[in-house]
Amino acid sequence: MASRRESAISVDSIAAESSAIPQSAPPAPLSKPLPNPHADPPAAPARPPPSAPPTGAAPAYRAAPQSAVSAPHTFDPDAQYSLEDYEILDTLGTGTFGRVQLVRLKHLPASRPDAYFAMKILAKSEVVRLKQVEHINSERAILSEVQHPFIVNLRHTLQDSRNVYMIMDYVPGGEIFSHLRRAGRFPTDVTRFYIATLVLAIDYMHRQKVIYRDLKPENLLLDSRGYTKITDFGFAKHVEGRTWTLCGTPEYLAPEIIESKGHGQAVDWWALGILAYEMLAGFPPYFDDHPFGTYEKILKGNLAFPSHVDSVSRDLIRSLLNKDVSKRLGNLRGGAEDVKNHFWFHGVDWRALEAGHLQAPIIPRRGAPGTTENFSKYAAPEANSMPGLRGREADAAAMAADQYAHLFRAF
Ligand SMILES: Nc1ncnc2c1ncn2[C@@H]1O[C@H](COP(=O)(O)OP(=O)(O)OP(=O)(O)O)[C@@H](O)[C@H]1O
Ligand SMILES: [Mg+2]
């Protein structure tokens, strides 16, 4: 349970494509420990309006970059940046379809924290092969709509002849996953801070009629002040009622997803219960070497707690992990308010939390701007894996021949 869990790709039924669901790998060594300096947030410029999808079938290249002489000193929401404007730096994470790279906007000085961005790169052929075109377009659309202090900020998107790219603000404090595995487990107060931020973010998303569907410590980052930022909207979906596709990560799947009964917002409250358990215990409540074993345990629902987990925490988790969606906390008439009113959150100042006025429990190590010391180390991407870096002229012929460009017009 120590290694990162990739999201299961979505499939129509578990039986049909169970082999496509990545299995838990054996424990990996933890990355190096973090000292604890203080950090101030870099001033975040306002979110740019989502760029309009190109109209014709022409390749979705952006206009040429601005010249460095007239360039502003921060990310310019009106500039139409292209791949050539970015310097590709360390890999921050790898996922099912691609990778996330730290990048620097070349015209901004390397000494500025806001010169750095996280670029999620997805190979179009893989997205098509794994039948994820709709999900990737939905990820782009939803991320460009949502705006919340605890959700990562998407700046803009691009495509070249091989990949689609999502350029987000760089969240430098690393994954909660790494902090949790390093600590073993979190004390109740630490857990409460993160879970409370997520209650606010889930409440916000559900009000936008978005279900997130991939809550897990690997998708939760810490900003420079130690506040939560949710990333990875690959499975987020606009849903008013129920939806049927199986997707998520095995240990975090609600029973109604496994049973293909149709699922809705309640799955995020279930996942929050799993997350609270995993933070307090150091491992999730239901897991097995094989996804099917995990599913069986989830459906059986034997919930056992380590002895150190107190009774109020147990009550919260049991209420969230109610297999009956009509009785699950968060999915009742009172919605997120019921969750906030649970005694476990007694004393939480929700407004101060949302405004970022509370001291976070873990302040990530803050090195030089653009440092990736809070992230695991990954191999560099293959040479030539981003053809657009050579410039749009150089990639023009391949782009014209790209059979997938029309599937990603919004990028
Ligand atoms: N804005 C960001 N700032 C810093 N790191 C990020 C950012 N976005 C993503 N990452 C890192 O990259 C990793 C992979 O990103 P993401 O989860 O979006 O990819 P994915 O391909 O959907 O992954 P998976 O399929 O495994 O869930 C994250 O777990 C995180 O470590
Ligand atoms: Mg992820």
From TrEMBL:
Mark out the compositionally biased spans (Low complexity): 13-23, 54-68
* Positions bound to ATP: 120
Q: Which reaction does it catalyse?
A: L-seryl-[protein] + ATP = O-phospho-L-seryl-[protein] + ADP + H(+); L-threonyl-[protein] + ATP = O-phospho-L-threonyl-[protein] + ADP + H(+)
Supply the alphabetized keyword list: ATP-binding, Kinase, Nucleotide-binding, Serine/threonine-protein kinase, Transferase
Q: Known InterPro entries for this protein?
A: AGC-kinase_C, Kinase-like_dom_sf, Prot_kinase_dom, Protein_kinase_ATP_BS, Ser/Thr_kinase_AS
> Which terms does the UniProt entry file under GO BP?
anatomical structure morphogenesis
Family in the record = Belongs to the protein kinase superfamily.
- Name used for this protein in its record: cAMP-dependent protein kinase
Organism of origin? Tilletiopsis washingtonensis
